[in-house]
Structures are given as structure tokens and as C-alpha cells.
Design a protein that fits this description.
With 176 residues, this protein is mostly beta strands. The protein has a single domain, classed as Phosphatidylethanolamine-binding Protein. Helices cover 9% and strands 29% of the residues. InterPro entries: PEBP, PEBP-like_sf, PEBP_euk, Phosphatidylethanolamine-bd_CS.
């Protein structure tokens, strides 16, 4: 295994901004249509408009998982005052299934970055048990670490992120 300096989550500052270093121990596959999300890949807002298919691996069928999707660069990478913006929260996902088998606590909100290149980070946690998870009162200023601590989730077991910017690229005015 390559050193942590080659870890794309560290290179992309996902480790540090969103989560602490961890060992990836459960397969996590995220696909939008026919595009699989790989760390640091570029996806356009039109590619990510619809909720992705998310498959969780693992070999112990008794395990259940929680998935969060956050944008640590909201509203802009140079001024991330809403860090982290919560785009999706699903709990009680059984191992070897898809997110659709879990409990959607916060519905999927499509990424719509207005300025700069944003990172969108999927983080998967193994739950100790089924428990009632409450939706936060708002999506902005969600904190993945505090959330994991509050619900006793421990370190992540998987994470993947993609980059996304406005369809037209950067610069120019936003037309609504």
C-alpha cells in the first residue's frame, strides 16, 4: 500500500477538512448514471442532478452503515462559511446492499456550486446498532466529525469524493 502522502483523500484535503485519517475497510461504490465516482474526478452539475446509486460492500451481513454527503467548500472554496453543507444523510444501510435499503434522514439535494471548484464528499460509517438519528435543523455548517461523535460511529470505514463546478466553468455571471 502506498504511503499516506499518495492518498487522494489527503491530497484533496478531504482528510483534514472533513475527516481524520482512517483505514478504508469497506467497499463503497457511487455511480451517477454510468459514471462511477473516483477520488478527485470531475463531474458536472448536470451529471449529479439525480440521486446516485450507492452500493455498500462488506462481508458481515449483520453490519449496518450511515452515509453522509457533504460539501466542505460551500458557498465558495475561498470562503467556505457554510462548511460543511449537508447534501444527503442515510442511516441503517444493510451491508452488501444499496442506500435505497437504508433510512433517508435528509433527502438528497443536488450539488449546485455557484463559484469555484467544490469537493463533494461521501463518507461511510459502520453503526454500532440501529438508532434514531435526527435530521439537523439546517444543512449548512454540518460537522461530519461531531455527527460521528454524537452517534458513536467511530472512524469512517470508506470515503470518496468528486469535484464539481458550474456547468460553464468558472468566471462570468450567473444567470438564473
Amino acid at each position: 500500500m502506498a504511503g499516506s502522502s499518495r492518498n487522494p483523500l489527503a491530497v484533496g484535503r478531504v482528510i483534514g477538512d472533513v475527516i481524520d485519517p482512517f483505514e478504508n475497510s469497506v467497499p463503497l461504490r457511487v455511480t451517477y448514471g454510468n459514471r462511477e465516482v473516483n477520488n478527485g474526478c470531475e463531474l458536472k452539475p448536470s451529471h449529479v442532478a439525480n440521486q446516485p446509486r450507492v452500493s455498500v460492500g462488506g462481508n458481515d451481513l449483520r453490519n449496518i452503515y450511515t452515509l453522509v454527503l457533504v460539501d466542505p467548500d460551500s458557498p465558495s472554496p475561498s470562503n467556505p462559511t457554510f462548511r460543511e453543507y449537508l447534501h444527503w444523510l442515510v442511516t441503517d444501510i444493510p451491508a452488501t446492499t444499496e442506500v435505497s435499503f437504508g433510512n433517508e434522514v435528509v433527502s438528497y439535494e443536488r450539488p449546485r456550486p455557484t463559484s469555484g471548484i467544490h469537493r463533494f464528499v461521501f463518507v461511510l460509517f459502520r453503526q454500532q446498532c440501529r438508532q434514531r438519528v435526527y435530521a439537523p435543523g439546517w444543512r449548512q455548517n454540518f460537522n461530519t466529525r461531531e455527527f460521528a461523535e454524537l452517534y458513536n460511529l467511530g472512524a469512517p470505514v470508506a470515503a470518496v469524493f468528486f469535484n464539481c463546478q458550474r456547468e460553464s466553468g468558472s468566471g462570468g455571471r450567473t444567470f438564473r
